[in-house]
């Protein structure tokens, strides 16, 4: 007789709740969840970025996110897993991504590279950290424009990653 135990993939494990992290980290996770999930989600993400930054800067921020997630897709240490768009829990991979964005805006490139190294191969950690810093600056602009309110959780989609919930 074989005992079969179902263990969720490491990156999918719930490690907290969105309410437990900073507004910047929440917005980063929302963007991650909406990034390239489907055409409607992609349009919602672009609309949210454009609403907070203006159309040209919103498109630019989306291009940075596309580049960042391209690096994750090509050089990721394993499949990167996201929870569903409206899920209130925070997955392990999402928590690392949120930490990467927070470290990027915090001005500590070493911390950002450490977070990035948990997502991608070591030789790609610094390039990913640089892109994350650029994206973090854009997200902080959105939060400043919205008077530091917590991000609306129904506005932002990802291809190549696995989604949970």
How are the elements arranged and paired?
Elements (H helix, E strand, L loop, with lengths): L13 E4 L5 H12 L4 H15 L1 H21 L5 E3 L5 E3 H14 L3 H11 L5 H21 L16 E3 L1
Helix pairs in contact: 1-4, 1-6, 2-3, 2-6, 3-6, 4-5, 4-6, 5-6
Give a brief outline of the structure.
By secondary structure, this protein is mainly alpha-helical. The chain has one domain (14-164). Helix content is 57%, strand content 8%.
Please explain how this structure is put together.
It contains six helices and four strands, in the order βαααββαααβ. With 165 residues, it is mostly helical. The chain has one domain (14-164). The radius of gyration is 15 Å and the shape is globular.
């Amino acid at each position: 007789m074989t005992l079969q135990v179902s263990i969720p993939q490491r990156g999918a494990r719930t490690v907290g709740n969105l309410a437990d992290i900073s507004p910047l980290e929440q917005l980063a996770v929302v963007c991650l969840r909406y990034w390239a999930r489907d055409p409607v989600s992609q349009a919602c993400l672009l609309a949210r970025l454009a609403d907070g930054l203006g159309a040209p800067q919103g498109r630019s921020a989306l291009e940075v996110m596309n580049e960042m997630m391209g690096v994750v897709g090509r050089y990721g240490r394993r499949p990167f897993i996201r929870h569903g768009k409206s899920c209130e829990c925070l997955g392990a991979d999402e928590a690392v991504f949120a930490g990467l964005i927070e470290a990027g805006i915090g001005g500590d490139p070493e911390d950002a590279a450490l977070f990035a190294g948990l997502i991608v191969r070591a030789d790609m950690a610094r390039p990913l950290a640089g892109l994350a810093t650029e994206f973090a600056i854009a997200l902080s602009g959105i939060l400043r424009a919205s008077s530091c309110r917590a991000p609306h959780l129904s506005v932002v989609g990802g291809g190549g990653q696995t989604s949970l919930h």
